[in-house]
Predict the structure.
Amino acid sequence: MALSVGQVLEFAEKRAITAASGQAVATATTLWMGLLTAAPTAGTDLTMASETEYGATGYARQSLTVASAWNAVTSASPSVVSNAASITWGPTSSSPGTTVTWGILCDAVSGTTANLYIAYLLTTPRTPISGDSVQAAASAFTASI
């Protein structure tokens, strides 16, 4: 399956269908937005284990507190959700020379065991240099089911 802008990944699909069927779903109070240098690996996109995360010194996944980080889900079909505020990564103090092409929503601040929720294809890929920050505007990341 080819990934698209705002692609809800398998882990999140399972959680959504579990909740929609009336079953209890444990909810995270904080999710994390990371940056990838390649598209999420289709078929192995449950965790960060197979993903290529940006690695400059000074880069870190950014926390998104669930209660305040997202705009209200639209009352439409399909329903759409988007980030409520801008998100900034960096500034970096090194430049690995790699291009950032995807945003990834996951449930851990670091590591490869983070569960993946949504992949976002960036409108404009960036190749940050030392001292750069990467910033996404409010409502830049959208997803729908």
In short: The CA atoms of residues 36 and 53 lie 4 Å apart. Residues 7-144 form one domain. The longest strand covers residues 116-126.
